[in-house]
Specification:
The protein has an eight-stranded mixed β-sheet with strand order 2-1-3-4-6-5-8-7, with helices on both faces. Helices cover 30% and strands 15% of the residues. The chain has helices at residues 37-51, 86-96, 108-114, 116-125, 170-177, 190-202, 224-228, 242-249, 270-273, 291-301; strands at residues 58-62, 77-80, 101-107, 130-135, 181-186, 207-212, 231-233, 256-263. The chain is built from ten helices and eight strands. The protein has a single domain (25-301), classed as 3-Layer(aba) Sandwich (Rossmann fold).
């Protein structure tokens, strides 16, 4: 196995306003050349920089899959967790320190398939997270099976005669399930994608960005050219209008809308409603026990 190339940058604290380069990880991505995930990674680094916080004020969490390797390629706190369980882990981290900016990254199989149950209930509870799903309509890491967002009749390793299952619509699902910031981006439009990520981080509540991130190896249907010919940015659209957002969410054909579909700023996030957090982040609150008692608890769990 070839060794991953490491950067030669010296460890240094951020001086002045952060830049995207400050969020470049030591390990270079090993995605296939032309993978849409490169565009997502670059946009996220730019969005982190634009937010103006230091590396230590962000946590990037992922599940399992090609896209879920992303925390290893970015300079923040990071966790590469279990398949479909990234949102559950991120929720725990957010409640331990709700002042931390927590971003979850993953793929359509990881988030909408294996982790579909967590996806639903994290939205329902309006947990203050940004969830970036690199949606390539395929299981890429396990070499090309149909995913929850694969289109009808699509031929894959698991559906060689054509997919007979209707695809899940994550945008419509998020709007009706309780997400309070619902957007769609395209890895080939980094300007808009960076802005969607930046605004999603600032939003108080659960934010979903479903990103068309084409798999160049196993999905020959939904290619970068396929999306370039079809995506159009939402214009003259009121994101506070849920009915209008749903009307746009179900459109799929010669034109596919991207941008901010829905945003609700009136509904509080779950951490804002939790009385125990009124005194500050749990991580900064006194334990209420002695050091010896704490050590005894830890030893008992080892």
């Amino acid at each position: 196995m070839a060794k991953r190339e490491r950067s030669t940058r010296r460890e240094r604290p951020i001086q002045g306003a952060p830049t995207a380069r400050d969020f470049q990880g030591d390990v270079r991505p090993d995605w296939c050349a032309g993978c849409g995930d490169y565009g997502v990674l670059s946009s996220l680094q730019n969005a982190y920089a634009k937010l103006g916080k230091g590396n230590h004020e962000h946590l990037t969490v992922s599940g399992i899959g090609c896209s879920s390797n992303l925390p290893g390629y970015i300079r923040t706190y990071g966790m590469h967790t279990l398949h479909g369980r990234a949102l559950a882990v991120a929720t725990g981290a957010k409640f331990a320190n709700h002042e931390m900016n927590v971003v979850v990254t993953g793929g359509d199989g990881d988030g909408y398939g294996i982790g579909g149950n967590h996806f639903i209930h994290t939205m329902r509870k309006n947990i203050d997270l940004l969830y970036i799903v690199m949606d390539n309509q395929i299981y890429g890491l396990t070499i090309g099976q149909a995913s929850p967002t694969s289109l009808m009749d699509m031929k894959t390793k698991s559906t060689p005669f054509g997919n007979i299952e209707a695809p899940l619509n994550p945008i419509a699902m998020a709007i009706v399930t309780g997400a309070t910031y619902v957007a769609r981006g395209f890895s080939g439009n980094p300007r808009q994608l960076t802005e969607l990520m930046y605004n999603g981080m600032q939003h108080k509540g659960f934010a979903l960005i479903d990103v068309f991130s084409p798999c160049i190896t196993f999905n020959r249907d939904n290619t970068s050219d396929f999306f370039k010919q079809r995506v159009r940015e939402l214009e003259d659209h009121d994101p506070s209008d849920k009915a209008a957002a749903l009307e746009e969410a179900v459109k799929w054909g010669d034109e596919i809308p991207i941008g901010l579909f829905y945003q609700d700023t009136s509904r509080p996030s779950l951490d804002q409603m939790e009385p125990v957090l009124e005194n500050g982040p749990m991580a900064h609150q006194p334990l209420g026990i002695t050091k010896e008692q704490g050590n005894a608890i830890i030893q008992g769990m080892m």
